[in-house]
Amino acid sequence: LDEEGRSWGWWQSLPASEECPVSLTPICMLSEAPFELRASGSRASAAARPRGASGAAAARAESPRHRFDAHALAKYLVGSGQFMDPVNRRPLLREECLALDRITGGTYGVAEALAAVQEVQAAGGGRSAATREVAVAARQLFVVPSATAPPQRP
């Protein structure tokens, strides 16, 4: 069971029309559970919400989920240097990037790339495309993948 009490393979019963917004792969065809981002940014589930919760807490717990192929999302985020939900352009939280790293085995270093972009921005680099490109390029140049790292998915 996952953190929301769903059994393995739950996503395979989703309609074929529900696709990863990045890879356009039907979610039901993924070999692993999809990575989910809440539209509101909260990772709280409706099952974890205290009874009687209302207001902002209830809205976050019931906000729509955006489902992704975890590897496609991680590759997109690091490659583009734009750390936002591709569906609604909400900036991602560090905890969401760390969760994506856990699911992908740290292959893409999403949280580390986010930190690099934020560091450049904090140093006065602004939010320009050039700033993101420099931060992402620097990370890719100076981070050597482990020899024991699993092979990357195409």
Strand order of the largest sheet: 1-2
- According to DSSP, the number of beta strands is 2
Termini separation: 28 Å
Shape: elongated
Tell me the radius of gyration: 17 Å
Mean pLDDT: 78
Number of helices: 5
> In percent, how much strand structure appears in the residues?
5-15%
Summarize the helix and strand pattern as letters.
EHEHHHH
Write the layout of secondary structure elements.
Layout: E1 35-38, H1 55-61, E2 65-68, H2 70-80, H3 94-103, H4 110-125, H5 129-142
Antiparallel strand pairs: 1-2
Helix pairs in contact: 3-4, 4-5
Tell me what you see in this structure.
The protein is mostly helical and 154 residues long. The protein is built from five helices and two strands, in the order βαβαααα. It has helices at 55-61, 70-80, 94-103, 110-125, 129-142, and strands spanning 35-38, 65-68. Strands 1-2 form a two-stranded antiparallel sheet. The longest helix is centred in the last third of the chain and has 16 residues, at 110-125. The radius of gyration is 17 Å and the shape is elongated.
Keywords:
5% strand, 38% helix
In short:
With 154 residues, the chain is mainly alpha-helical.
